[in-house]
Amino acid sequence: MFETAVSETTVSGSTVPDPEAPDPRGRLDDLVAGARRGERRAWDALVERYRPLVRAVASGYRLNARDVEDVDQTVWLRLIENLDRIREPRALPKWLITTAANESRRLTRARQRTVLIGVLDEPVHDNGAEPPGTPDTDLLRRELARTVQQGLAELPVAQQRLLRLLAGDRQLSYREISRILVIPVGSIGPTRARGLARLRATAAVREYVAC
Fewer CB within 10 Å: C terminus or N terminus of the chain? Predict the structure, then answer.
């Protein structure tokens, strides 16, 4: 990949490329046309130029680092699916902003609806030690954590390993998880989403929710 200086501007504390700045690697319409033809260099140039913009939008929704990565991966997958439908290349930055915003809002709503995701961060204290809190709260927390662990046991091994790594005490980046599990970075977000959906559908979790 060619080294180049990219014109930038600062928005809300994040450095993002100026969509109106000249592209030193070629005009935007040439890059879009090349990406449509399947040219890897043109696609990489588009991603390098606009990835900071996509991540800045996601960060504006106060998403954590993992969710920002999820939004980033999803936006580029959506672009692959819709690139031929973008008739005017100069509309690409706006399309990316809109898609990133929609995906960020979707993730935000999903976090608000999902009460089980955070439980993966709660260890089960079998040694009698209890985290601070009232006895009733501690009991409910341990019961919910055990339910999630039972639900995880019903998942395929690959999804179990991924969710346990994501919920571990050490905050691993997607690249670290990719190396550990020997899977593409781009597959982590979708696999995580499928694993969590499957977790919520397990007998253990459904029984707990029904109580």
Answer: C
Least Cα distance to 46 among 56, 57, 34, 55 occurs for 34
Contacts with 15 (C-beta within 8 Å, 6 or more apart), sequence order: 8, 9, 52, 56
Please name the helix (run of DSSP H) or strand (run of DSSP E) that holds residue 10, with its range, or none: strand 8-11
d(CA 142, CA 121): 12
Neighbours of 15 (CB within 10 A): 12
d(CA 104, CA 101): 5
pLDDT tens readout for residues 54-91: 999 998 888 888 889 989 999 999 999 899 888 899 99
Domains and CATH numbers, the chain: 8-112 (1.10.1740.10), 117-210 (1.10.10)
Number of helices (H), then strands (E), belonging to the chain: the values are 9, 2
Residue 142 and residue 167 in contact, taking contact as beta carbons nearer than 8 Å? no
Tell me the pLDDT tens digit for each residue of 116-170.
Answer: 445 454 444 444 444 444 455 566 667 777 888 888 899 999 999 998 888 776 7
